[in-house]
Structures are given as structure tokens and as C-alpha cells.
Amino acid sequence: MLNSDGVGTKVEIAERTGIHRTVAYDLFAMLCDDAVRYGAEPIAISNILDVNKLSVDVVKDIAEGMVEAAGDAGVAVVSGEIAELGSRICGYGRYNYNWAGTVLSIIRKEMGQERIKKGQIIVALEERGFRSNGLTLVRNILEKAYGTNWHRKKIKGKTLGEMVLMHSRIYTPAVLDMLDLVDGIVHITGGGIPGKLGRLLSAVRLGAEISDLFTPPDIMLACQKLGSVDDKEAYKVWNMGQGMLVITSAPEDVISIAERHKIKARIAGELTGKRGIRLMSKGFYRKGKALLY
């Protein structure tokens, strides 16, 4: 199978900070973790980098990061292109780019919806950053709060730019190792838990009771506070601390495999016969309160 995706506006954060080496983790996570949710093993990636003007230093950092991310994802980068497009590409600073790719994968397990049943357990895999979703809202909130150069403001010894740029965790190798134990995989990207898990549950006419998610990273809670983003909306815009949910009847084994890959995992909830999602919030405004979707 083939699937394509891009880094989106997160590249502006790299442009602001001058840190380009980690962006490949965001691209490869969007590609590979989307593929593995279908029970597919990613094997080869092609990418296209559109720039306004070439910078040897920027491209070198991107390429070095790509080697590292490919190793972590277990894929080969087999082709690519750099296109210099002048004023059609713009952003922050002198050198701007857009980056996208396509991944080729082999189906290892058919993820049939008929296997998903009431009473199965939802295991959450921790994420400490935004991945590549909801960044436009983040940038708008922080610019309104701190001005054009918001990325330079320091909190607890780190700049806001560095905190927002936190690279995505690539879950693919861990999920492939637990594939025989799982019956559903949800990659938490645009739409958050309500959108992504909700789509799967709607198809099988089930619901979910989610009572113990990971706490969102400090930067997400800060953005909630600064932008007056209610918890119910925050869980739809951002991953709020979990980049992937796994549906399984063997949660302890799944957690053990995740931990071997140095990924924190926990039992977050279970599937129910009642339609809809009841989620116990760990957000800024309604921590400990139930959110209904």
C-alpha cells in the first residue's frame, strides 16, 4: 500500500529555531504511523522538499535527521527531489521549505473491524509533543501572547520554540512487534481522540470509557491557558499526551512490548456497548471532569 503526508506548518517552528535535524521524525511519524494502523509494515520512503532558495546547511541538517529517523522507523529512503521555487515558498526567515513524502508498505495483518468487541482494552502510547497537528493554533496563541518573536521566550530554561518543536515519537517498530496482540490501532493526529477513535468506534457501533490518559505536556497546557482553549476543544485539536491508541485483549503484553521500545504505555480505558466517547480530562480547565463526545 501507499500513503502520503507532510510536516505541515511545523516547518515554520524549525525555521524560527534554526533546528532542522528533528523535522524528519515528524515526517516519518506521519507516514509510517499512518501506515502501521492498517497493519502494514513501512519499507521505503520517497520525499519531496520544496524550498524558496537552497541552503547547504539547512539541507544538510534535514538529510542527517532523515538518516536518523529512517533508522528508528526501520525504513529505507529510496528516492527524493529538491525543488527550488522562489517566492512560491515563504515562511519565517531567509530559508523556507515545505516537506512531504510517500511511504510504500506491505500488509502484515488485515485489521478487520469484526475483531473489535465490547470489553476490549484501550492502551495509550505516550507522546510528549504536538506531532504535526494543531500547530497553526499554537502559533496564533503564542504570537498573540508574546509577539512576533514568541519562539525566543524562555520557560524553565527552554525556549517556547524548542518546546513546540519537540519531535514526534515514531511508534511503528513497537506496533509491528505487538501486531499479533492488537485488533485496532488509532493514530492520534488531526481531530484528536474524538475524531480518530470516534471514526473507528462509529464503524463498529461501539463506544469508549476513557479514564486514565497520559497528562498533556506542559506546553499544551500552557497553550490552553494562554488561548482560553477549553479541554473539550483541546482534545479535538491536539493529541493531549498520547500519539497512538491500541485496542487489545492482552494489555499487559502490549505495555511490556512498548516499554521494551522505551515507550511509556498505560491502560487508558475500555470499549463499551454505549455509543459515544466518555473521556476523563487531564486538561488545564476541566481536569478530573468527564468530557462527552
How far apart lie the N and C ends? 32 Å
Number of helical stretches of at least 4 residues: 10
Looking at this structure, what is the CATH superfamily of the largest domain? PurM-like C-terminal domain
Quaternary structure: single chain
User: Nearest-angstrom radius of gyration?
Assistant: 19 Å
What percent strand? Answer: 25-35%
Please list the strands of the largest sheet in the order they lie side by side.
Answer: 8-10-5-11-9-12-13
Properties at a glance:
2 domains; alpha+beta; 27% strand; 60s Ribosomal Protein L30, Chain: A; 293 residues; 4-stranded mixed β-sheet; Phosphoribosyl-aminoimidazole Synthetase, Chain A, domain 2; globular; 7-stranded mixed β-sheet
Give your account of this protein's structure.
The chain has 293 residues and is an alpha+beta fold. It folds into two domains: 2-108, PurM-like, N-terminal domain (60s Ribosomal Protein L30, Chain: A); 114-292, Phosphoribosyl-aminoimidazole Synthetase, Chain A, domain 2, CATH 3.90.650.10. The chain has helices at residues 10-17, 23-36, 56-73, 135-146, 160-165, 172-177, 192-204, 218-227, 231-237, 251-260, and strands at residues 2-6, 40-51, 76-84, 97-107, 121-126, 154-155, 158-159, 182-187, 207-210, 242-248, 265-272, 276-280, 290-292. The strands form three sheets. Strands 8-10-5-11-9-12-13 form a seven-stranded mixed β-sheet, with helices on both faces. Strands 1-4-2-3 form a four-stranded mixed β-sheet, with helices on one face. Strands 6-7 form a two-stranded antiparallel ribbon. Helix 7 (192-204) packs across helix 9. The chain is globular, with a radius of gyration of 19 Å. The relative contact order is 0.18.
